[in-house]
Amino acid sequence: MGLSRKVRLLSAVLVPMLALAACSGGGGGSSDGDAAGGGGEEQVKITVWSWDGTVAQAVPGFEAANPNIKVEVVNAGSSQDEYQALDNAIQAGSGVPDLVMFEYFAVPYFAIPGKLADLGEFGVENFKQDYVEAAWNDVTVNGKVYALPSDYGPSAMFYNAATLKKAGMNKPPATWDEYYEAAKKVRALGDDHYIAQDTGDLFFLLSLIWQAGGRPFKVDGNKVHIDFTDAGTTKAVSFWQKMLDEDLVNTKITGWSDDWNRALNDGTLATQTMGGWLTSTLPERAPQAAGDFRVALMPQWQQGEKVGAANGGSSFGIPAAAEHKEAAFKFLEHFTHGGGLASRVAAGAFVPNMSVLESEAFQSKANEYFGDQKVGAVLAEASEIVGSGWQYPPFFEWARSIYGDIASPFYTTGKGSLAEILEQWRQRCIQYGNEQGFEVD
Amino acid sequence: MDLARRFDADPPATASPDAKRPQTATRKHRRTRIALAFIAPFGTLFALVFIVPILYAAYLSLFQQKLIGGDTFVGFANYGKLFRDPQFWDGVGRVFRFTLIQVPIMLIFAMALALALDGMRVHGAKFMRMTIFLPYAVPAIVSTLMWGFLLGVKYGLFGSLNDALGTDLDPFAPGTTLISIGLMVTWAFTGFNMLIFYAALKAVPRELYEAAAIDGANEFQVVRAIKVPALRGSLVVTTIFSIIGTFQMFNEPQILPSMVAGSGVTTFYTPNLYAYHLAFTGSQQGYAAALALVMAAITIAVAYAVQIRGLRNASDQ
Predict the structure, then answer these.
(1) Is residue B283 within 8 angstroms of chain A, CB to CB?
(2) Disulfide-capable partner of A132 in A65, A203, A352, B103 (CB 3.0 to 4.6 Å)?
């Protein structure tokens, strides 16, 4: 629904680029590039497909360190558009780029039919330690690594402290039980006040399930098992059902719409539980609420626990049909892990690298929009507590697109339930998946 | 609505003045060559932009794309599946209902405006003509956004109206969204249709009006006996344009869901939207091609039926 996740990620990442100084500093660090770039090598040009604007920041430093590799960064569209273009290029056998950006859920879509190169041959296992565990899991399909994480969306709760205060709360809800009580207090402020909005936001519901320990998709090779009845899923779904049933959630406002902007500005929506990328989007969407918002970890299912979930994020992989895989990997390593990382972080990228998340500079930076809160520290923690073992089915791109068709009657009429929606969705997924040659049950 | 499609009447069968003259073989040969040379530019373009894409779509429609296993030849299975697909027929039914209600309203409206402008009963006819036509120049994406704001119940104009009147109407509820889309389409295309009617009225010979005046006919009699019959031909044209346009409805239902919650717009709201969705998110290009061809056949059949009926009525006169 709405302008899809890609746009959100895009806006999260396209922060003004003023980081040339940081760039030259970072470029010197890619020593492994020097070692491999012997003088006798031929000049190669690699093409990178990316809708993440920060990638270009890493190019000058890379080219300086690897004079025989030229990098061309192309925006071939976002998300779906780009995947379609890649599929076409692979089918046509020409114009296949050397490096391509993928949202995490799209990695299995390309990896399973063998369209992506296994990065194992480049010794990619050595980098594992630098990444948040759940992000590494996202780029691993059937035990093999097909991409390197480039940005991340740990779920966090953005809350309007002023609205909560008006409702009589001085701190954000720490558990979902407290969240439920808080929702009632916010609702009591008047007609338009709600703790959150939901018109069928699949990624939010999945993050709730993810955090509660539900793992509805199990993928093993071509076999996909879908089950929305495990304990974690049931807990999350019935909680949100209760919130909807008791009119504690605004079902009239769609996220990313003009109505949503207005409600964020005037403080009638008290919280947003979304990916960390909202940090850079919120100031653009709700400039009038500057100083009111804060960030906290997702409310927990158990008091004292610390478990999180992810909502969005992307990675870069090398197509199996790419011409210059070696050079492509060198650049991939440079901007997702090596010397080019700093320039991207300076340009606003939120990366799942421990070396960045744990750094003093990242953790202690005060964010003016969030009342000088040290947002980086919260999001770093949110990244590190993301529950492990989550999987997306390879046909998730299609599945999410039809979810709205199934969910919308419930959200508009109130007839039915989330559990019924998920079951219907499961049935459609099973049918489609089997038609597409998977074994789905 | 897409007006790139030309409405081509059958070319008049003119008799060649040379037809009966005896011809030598070489002359005939030369004439054929010249004729071919004249046809070639059009013929080549026609083949490239019309025939080839249709044939390619027909070819595509015989295949099924799978994530696992790639493309397989499935014969006419895509068509069989399409005829049993309730989502496809849901969309077809919706554009049919839409056409039946919206097209007559829009055309009557356009005709009334054309008659009013032609009757010189309005001041500033040139200005009026321009303003009524102007919405046609607004891209559908922009007009959908605009109407989305106007009709929004939360912060839009309609919301204020509800507040003022104490009503609780929602133009973008599942039951009313189609009406709102009808409003947008009518707003956008009335001016265009009006212009066609207006041009037809301007072509009526002035002598007819003089004769009517001499016979003592009043304004209403002139409209009934001269102007409305003069509009028949263009009515057929505008009806066909409108049918083709509504059958291809895409922009409005594509944009609405990102603007308003719970509008009831699904991924298969119109056949065009469904084809787009199948091809670009479902990677089912073969199935989408089959859908596109079937939908084209349905559109052509309906448009052709209107044309035959319209021309027969016109020749009854």
Answers:
(1) yes
(2) A352
